[in-house]
Design brief:
2 copies of one chain form a homodimer. The first copy, chain A, is α/β, with parallel strands linked by helices. Chain A folds into 2 domains: about 140 residues, Aspartate Aminotransferase, domain 1 (Alpha-Beta Complex), CATH 3.90.1150.10; about 240 residues, Aspartate Aminotransferase, domain 2 (3-Layer(aba) Sandwich). The first copy, chain A, contains 14 helices and 12 strands. In chain A, the strands form 3 sheets. Chain A has a 7-stranded mixed beta sheet, sandwiched between helices. In chain A, strands 9-12-11 form a 3-stranded antiparallel beta sheet. A two-stranded parallel ribbon of chain A has the order 1-10. Chain A starts with a helix and ends with a helix. The model of chain A has no long low-confidence stretch (mean pLDDT about 95). Chains A and B meet through helix 1, helix 3, helix 5, helix 6 and helix 10 of A and helix 1, helix 3, helix 5, helix 6 and helix 10 of B.
């Protein structure tokens, strides 16, 4: 009766959301402090002080016209400031003309895919992946091609990528620091991918675009540097949001930055602006465009995330879990004690621990933990983890 | 290289936006007070005082978690208040479960069409129409079927609608008060359409949904009442925004309300929430959800719009234009003095008058004027209109 595809998707819909609702039920039964919910990446931190002050200042200013439509690309001065920020961070030379302000990264990714894809064109997604990518690609007539990363390091596997590039390959989505693994993709590997793409573009007479989804770029640990996608790839499009760096996920504010080294980058930006309009985003929310332009250098307290990572990671390792140590983001992606990660999720549930099965990220046998939660929940969960592990000894 | 369809659309893209840019050029040459820009529906009014106070209050509250993700459907308490508001205005019985908060009406319409449409299904659009509908339908694999309204009254033509309903008809979009004509669709005609749809549903064994785009529902004149779509149509879905009523177009806040009388309305709401998420809207902006929940009864000063309507309408009539008197919205849709409305647009441009040709709304020979502008611009434009008319005498 309704869209059959959407109805079919409803039943097998997001594991993350399913666990979120499971959590709501458990909290009602056991009380919120007896439930250890690691299922959803909804940062419990408040926005940095500078961001909160900026929201107040702009709201109080009563500046005329501040809630009106602006260009579908966003405010010119905001786009300029975002370009300057990107230039400082990446050593590139973008201008306002390379920036489109968006309703978060999710909005941005849909706009990019709509602007790029012709029916049946392929988009490479590296697993484990953020499951929404598959829907975003399908929304605009594309075909996702899932390519596993290295099963030990979760770094991109260049040979596997090479095997999957065809003359229909339009783009590859890169997500570093990665959700769900927390891995930061290695600069040399990315440079090798760049060479591979250029040689494949020549071979097929096509263009292959790198779409970099970077919401966790500012949440990094231990002095790690996230390689600059704009520097490494000629045909790169960076999509970013302030959901994580500024703890503003509910406000839907982000941007698209198109590499100035891309052929016809001006046409692509026009296409992005058109798609931002006709997909119904129209423009990024006005007030929060102004807020982020004033606070581009702000970021949540990374040390607070590091403390959570270390506490949970060290505990799991001490209990015998195998897990790569995250260099960024706020997720752990340990190996389950049984092959069937859904079964393992059910075991964890019996201890009031909520986790997301790895198959929700296209990677069976693992599970994802989100540690952007109250540290007391992590502390209180430690005995529950021990009890869970005892089941398997 | 990019999406061929999008690139093709760029060249024939929105007349409204094209005129907007033409206006920017003219203002640079002649100065802003010598350019009479009636091209874009970007209200120059500020939000009502209650709305501005609410933005300040919520921004200053520092309530923890107010910028976090919430359910993809929106805050539960906001959805409840919107349902209660709709019930008061329409005499229906919706609950929070029938409401999905959206990024404006444009976002809401895309979500509805994605949730409804299977490939190749048809959506009836009554001309003259808001041109974006055609893109929204195409985004989700639907086929727009344009059905002209009555050429004298711009009321829906029931016989023309009947001729265009097939077993592939999935929906009809209704926009009342109408953009661009300002006409409020007549209650008896709407009831006849409802009977027609029910009989066609029986004939074809299908469901036909009425999607009502109502951003102008609160901007009405002369005591006119806008008939309640939720009361008249069993399978109705109302999409609304606070862009016009609250003068918040840049903030992207609106909602979808699904009729409780629809079969499987719960499934449709689930599908809408899924599409809100996977199309990348994720959720309606958090802060402005809270603002509108506090100010549902607020509205901009309708008298100010009425003053503008009367000034411009009376002047055009006195100059010999033929134009239906708008009962709502903030547009006039007069007949041009020549059949070719683009040629007429060019004549007007020579007098620094910016108008949008009727063919931008699927209706040649007319033009649209947006009067949600500074009343001084309208006053200053009066001699320019006289000069324009003299050309045709």
């Amino acid at each position: 009766m309704f869209s059959q595809k959407v109805i079919d998707s409803l039943s097998k819909s997001s594991w993350i959301r399913a666990m979120f609702e499971e959590g709501e039920n458990l909290r009602k039964i056991y009380g919120p402090d007896k439930v250890y919910d690691f299922s959803i990446g909804n940062p419990e931190m408040e926005p940095p002080l500078a961001v909160r002050e900026s929201i107040k200042k702009i709201s109080l200013s009563d500046e005329p016209g501040q809630h009106r439509y602006m260009s579908n690309a966003g405010y010119q001065d905001v786009r300029e400031k975002v370009a300057q920020y990107i230039n400082r961070e990446n050593g590139v030379s973008l201008t306002a003309q390379h920036i489109v302000m968006t309703c978060g990264a999710a909005g941005g990714l849909n706009v990019v895919l709509k602007a790029l894809l012709n029916p049946g064109e392929e988009v490479i997604v590296l697993s484990p992946y953020f499951v929404e990518y598959l829907y975003y690609i399908d929304n605009h007539g594309g075909v996702p091609v899932v390519v596993p990363t290295d099963s030990e390091t979760f770094q991109p596997d260049i040979e596997a990528i090479e095997r999957n590039i065809t003359n229909r390959t339009k783009a590859i989505i890169i997500n570093t620091p990665n959700n769900p693994t927390g891995v930061v993709y290695n600069e040399t590997i990315l440079k090798n991918i760049s060479e591979l793409l250029e040689s494949k573009e020549k071979e097929f007479g096509t263009s292959i675009y790198v779409i970099s989804d970077e919401p966790y770029a500012k949440i990094i640990y231990d002095g790690v540097k996230v390689p600059s996608i704009l520097k490494i790839f000629k045909n790169s499009i960076v999509v970013n949001s302030f959901s994580k760096s500024h703890a503003l996920p509910g406000e839907r504010i982000g941007y698209i930055a198109v590499s100035s080294t891309m052929d016809n980058c001006g046409t692509l930006v026009n296409a992005l602006v058109f798609c931002n309009r006709t997909l119904g985003f129209v423009n990024a929310p006005a007030l929060f465009q102004k807020v982020i332009a004033e606070t581009l250098n702000a970021a949540v307290d990374i040390d607070a995330y590091k403390k959570r990572r270390d506490l949970l990671y060290n505990h799991l390792i001490s209990l015998g879990f195998s897990c790569i140590k995250p260099e960024g983001g706020f997720y752990l992606f340990p190996k389950a004690f049984v092959d069937d990660d859904v079964e393992f999720k059910n075991h964890a549930l019996k201890h009031n621990i909520l986790i997301v099965p790895g198959q929700g990220f296209g990677w069976k046998g693992h599970f994802r933990l989100s540690y952007c939660i109250d540290i007391k929940v992590i502390e209180n969960s430690l005995p529950a983890w021990e009890a869970l592990v005892r089941e398997f000894k």
